[in-house]
Amino acid sequence: MAKTQTVLSERVVTTRKAHRSVGCCETIPIGAKATYIAGIVDGEFAASYTCHDCEEWLRQHPGYFDDDAFHEGDIATAREEEARA
Length: 85
Prior knowledge:
alpha+beta, 3-stranded antiparallel beta sheet
């Protein structure tokens, strides 16, 4: 089932506490730069952080994910597949 998504806010932040990167599921440490995205997904509020490494990977692989939408851990999986190729 397709999800409807509306981005309300997207910005680069410096973390004040540790967060989990939605792209790779790794911990983003305190004081690191990360991309914060907040929005509405299927009528519900959602917010996530993406680490710098995942953002860089996305910039190097434009169009890898349909509509730039990915699920938790998808970037880590894509990196692993790329390394095996």
